[in-house]
Amino acid sequence: MKLFAVIALCCSFFSARATPLPFEFLDCDDPDVLEAVDTALQKYNGDSTTGNQFALYMVTEVGPDKQFHVKYQIRETTCATEENKLWKDCDYKASAEAKTGECTAQVHMNNAEKTSNISQDCKIVPVQPMIPSTQGICLGCFHTLPSDDLQVSEILKKAIKKFNKHSEETVLFKLVEIKKAQRQVVAGWNYIIKYEIKETNCSKDQFQDLTHECKTTSEGRIGKCDAKAYENLRAEIVDIAKVVNPPTQVCPDCPRTIPIDSAELKELLKISVEKFNLETNDDVYYQATDIESATVQVVAGQNYNLVFFVKKTNCSKKEFEKLNEDCEITTDSQPLRCEAQIYVVPLEKKIIHEVNCSQYQIMV
Ligand SMILES: *[C@@H]1O[C@H](CO)[C@@H](O)[C@H](O)[C@H]1NC(C)=O
Ligand SMILES: *[C@@H]1O[C@H](CO)[C@@H](O)[C@H](O)[C@H]1NC(C)=O
Ligand SMILES: *[C@@H]1O[C@H](CO)[C@@H](O)[C@H](O)[C@H]1NC(C)=O
Ligand SMILES: *[C@@H]1O[C@H](CO)[C@@H](O)[C@H](O)[C@H]1NC(C)=O
Fold it and tell me: In a mutational test of the pocket of ligand 3, which residue from 315, 325, 327 has the highest number of ligand atoms less than 8 Å from its CB?
């Protein structure tokens, strides 16, 4: 009960409005890779004298050794080279007019001396449609940081100080463990950190803030906390209670969830079930029961992934030309789990569609 009080106190403080985060937590890849690519791309932009800057589109390959061999795709932005902006600050050009390119780079980072040695080759190609991909590092996604990250400790120092100042506890609390730290590129960076604090032997009466003397006590209570922070482009922590929404174009190829009850989804589900009914050798029609998940990825068109369940109906294919409203699901039918991939190219009115269903083992 005592533990719960601390959790509520701590967490209600950091997320007073309890709104869910507006992004998806995709653990795309290593932040070191992103840093190496960032360094290489800044060099590429810095070396060119004309045209527009390029921004990272996605990382497609990372070599086996840690002194990075990377391949990444870039895309033209609206920032002119002479503006000397950081690419993260620039917007992608509309895809119909944007040049794209692929770079192969060897990046040697010397973190101690803050130097890097980069050799790379970039091939710029004129405008062409992108191929849908679920791989690659997603720029707008959250990337896990090592728990000894300097900025993370800075944020936690501030967050715990704020907690100690405002809490109704009689003693000061101290950081014991960072459970998870993640960062996302926006115009700047968003941080989300999960950590634990523990009671110390310093009372608030005697101490304004934590000092070396304050030690956690063995029977002290533990609080589980979340901190969110936003760091601007000048590397200043602007806010430690909330994060900013990423501009949508930062992560063009991140799959996004579609609401289960949307009209868009109903239509897609209908054509998927129709296709399955057409392809299956079964002599009755199947009908969809539940949707497990549905995502869409915007590429040169829309790439949908649906996972749903179907069950047999009492309509036989012999009797009916199509699944219709009078067909009811039979109670003894085993559900099949289906995965559909639908790729819609609006301009060409082309739909590439694949659906597979298989026996579904219900876990008990
Ligand atoms: C940079 O890397 C290349 C290739 O690995 C190497 O030949 C060169 O000596 C390096 N330069 C510096 C300054 O470290
Ligand atoms: C807290 O405990 C540590 C070690 O047990 C001790 O050195 C320190 O003086 C104590 N601090 C206070 C304020 O009692
Ligand atoms: C399927 O079952 C429903 C409900 O029992 C019934 O109303 C409907 O007529 C049946 N359809 C067929 C084709 O047998
Ligand atoms: C359907 O199955 C085929 C063959 O097993 C596979 O190549 C394809 O990727 C599957 N499609 C989906 C959408 O799961």
Answer: 327
Sheet bearing 100-110, strands edge to edge: 52-62, 69-80, 100-110, 115-125
CATH number at residue 59: 3.10.450.10
Task: For 124-179, write each residue's pLDDT tens digit.
Answer: 876 644 444 444 445 566 777 777 777 788 888 888 888 888 777 888 888 888 88
Q: Quick check: 98 and 92 in contact, CB under 8 A?
A: yes
User: Looking at the domain assignment, is residue 3 inside a domain?
Assistant: no
205-221 confidence digits (pLDDT tens): 888 888 888 888 888 78
Q: Has residue 22 been placed in a domain?
A: no
Provide the token pair at 93: 């050009």
Distance 260 CA to ligand 2 centre (A): 56
**Domain membership of residue 283 as a residue range:** 256-359
Assess whether 260 and 240 both reside in one domain: no
Contact 78, 116 (CB under 8 A): no
Q: What domain count does the chain have?
A: 3
Residue 63 confidence class, pLDDT cut points 50, 70, 90: low
